[in-house]
Amino acid sequence: MQLTQNRYFLACLSAFLLWLAWPPMPYTSFLLFVAFVPLLFAVEAIQTSDQPKKGRKIFGLAFLSFVLWNTASIIGYLIPCMQPCRCRLLWPFL
Length: 94
What we know:
Structural class: mainly alpha
Oligomer: single chain
Helix content: 55-70%
């Protein structure tokens, strides 16, 4: 099976690379340029196929990729803030 056949894997790979590159740390900002390439390969595979409702499938892949990226980024920022000594307002809800 070709790599472009597994479009969901490419969308998840794009989300993972975006998560690694953001926030920009030393030597990881180049990943911001590379991270969209797997998603673009998946979009091209959908556009060249003969399946109906191509726009809906492209939107679904982009939605999956960006939801995974945003969820991973938010969790990475919130976990250090939820320590009991740093944020007393959130501690009773944990």
